[in-house]
Design brief:
Blueprint lengths: L1 E7 L2 H13 L8 E3 L5 E7 L6 E7 L4 E6 L3 E7 L9 E6 L10 E6 L4 E6 L3 E6 L8 E10 L4 E9 L26 E4 L4 E7 L3 E8 L2 E9 L1 E2 L10 E4 L43 E4 L5 E5 L7 E4 L19 E6 L5 E10 L10 E4 L2 E7 L9 E5 L2
Parallel strand pairs: 20-21
Antiparallel strand pairs: 1-14, 2-8, 3-7, 4-5, 4-8, 5-6, 9-10, 10-11, 11-12, 12-13, 14-15, 15-16, 16-18, 17-23, 18-19, 19-20, 21-22, 22-23, 23-26, 24-25, 25-26
């Protein structure tokens, strides 16, 4: 996973920064390590010329290493404690309590940068993700809308099956919300003030976490990990946000704000905490193999999709006996029963003695803890995998 954290000046600058993050360099997948040393690799991200390949960082001494790619060949050499920079890959290795030895190695994959299909600065972006092998065409986007009187500054989120430069955002093929406001797409609630953010991406999807005042909002654009073969489920596209409506408010309504508290505002892992009457009430939607967009909630739904484990009782989930935390996959299923797959990089965790922006480490992976907008009960936290 590649991730970036920083502060945007507002909702429009956040969109520009996400575009630069996705299209300015390739992405890296989670690394593995074989050897003696116990130092860490961090800041993994591709470069402007990244391709789909396997990168191997091989130590030649306790403090020196060489970098090579399965496609690019020799990329360069580096030193522990000093950032390694190139047009193919970028990272930093720090020493641990046990020194590295010659032949110790980190291994990970890189992807090409995402492609910009439409870019209107601060207003509208449509991207094509390459997939982790560089062979997919995953089309997603975001478009801003705001009202000064209603005091909201939001993104409309999009997922598509093709791109036509002559068509507007909500008329692209396969649009998640349909072509009319009778079937509105998910929204990311933002504001026009400084906004701390976290972007986490690979070649298949991007997760956005943003802090707006004292609340946290999230978006998911791209593929999930399906439990079916690519042939039977070739385009498992997810669009998830922090707000969705069966019937949207008027343009000037303050119900569009991040401070709204109804079931219509809920981050995608906790999508709509009740039984839905319409799939478009869901903040989390999956394009089924049939081409239909299905909504998912956590209300023990027998008509639409359900989210495990948030759709089940989690009120007694506490920390492990050693005080640490367990994370579980977020699985999408229905009552048919069909089990479709799981979200990539977003996992379930208990909120017991937990708080947003905490990090937990499990093995070689680090997770960022995020609450469900303004909610802070034990069942309203998730973990986003950073590396």
């Amino acid at each position: 996973m590649s991730f970036q954290t920083g502060t945007a000046t507002g909702y429009d600058d956040l969109l520009n920064k996400l575009d630069t993050f996705l299209t300015g360099q390739g992405m890296c997948l989670s690394p593995s390590f074989a050897g003696t040393g116990n130092g860490a690799i961090s800041g993994l991200i591709g470069g402007s010329a990244s391709v789909a390949e396997t990168i191997i960082v091989t130590f030649t001494s306790p403090t020196a290493f060489s970098v090579s790619g399965s496609v690019s060949g020799a990329i360069g050499t580096g030193t522990v404690g000093t950032p390694f920079a190139s047009t193919k890959v970028n990272f930093t290795i720090t020493a641990g309590g046990t020194a590295f030895v010659a032949t110790d190695a980190f291994t990970f994959a890189t992807t090409p940068p995402w492609t910009s299909l439409r870019r209107t600065a601060g207003s509208e972006m449509i991207w094509q993700a390459p997939g982790n092998g560089g062979l997919d065409q995953i089309i997603v986007g975001a478009k801003t809308f705001f009202d000064a009187g209603g005091d909201y500054y939001n993104w409309r989120l999009g997922g598509f099956t093709a791109f036509n430069s002559g068509l507007p955002f909500n008329q692209q093929a396969g649009y998640v919300g349909g072509a009319s406001q009778a079937a509105p797409s998910p929204v990311l609630n933002l504001w026009n003030q400084p906004t701390p953010y976290w972007f986490i991406a690979n070649g298949r999807r991007v997760i956005v976490v943003a802090k707006v005042s004292t609340v946290y909002v999230m978006a998911y654009l791209g593929f999930m990990s399906p439990y079916m073969s690519p042939g039977s489920f070739p385009y498992p596209l997810i669009v998830g946000g922090s707000m969705a409506w069966n019937s949207e408010p008027a343009a000037g309504s303050t119900n569009w704000r991040w401070s709204y508290s109804g079931n219509e505002i809920s981050n995608f892992p906790f999508s709509f905490n009740s039984t839905m009457s319409n799939a478009y009430q869901a903040q989390l939607r999956l394009r089924l193999a049939s081409g239909t967009w299905q909504g998912f909630d956590r209300g023990q739904d027998t008509v639409f999709g359900e989210i495990y484990p948030y759709g089940n009782s989690m009120t007694d989930w506490r920390t492990n006996l050693d005080g640490g935390y367990l994370v579980l996959p977020i699985v999408l299923h229905d009552a048919a029963p069909n089990v479709y797959g799981e979200l990539e990089g977003a996992l379930a965790v208990t909120g017991f003695q937990n708080a947003s922006e905490n990090t937990i480490t499990l093995g070689n992976s680090t997770y960022l803890i995020v609450q469900n907008v303004s909610r802070t009960t034990k069942v309203d936290y998730c973990a986003v995998k950073l590396i």
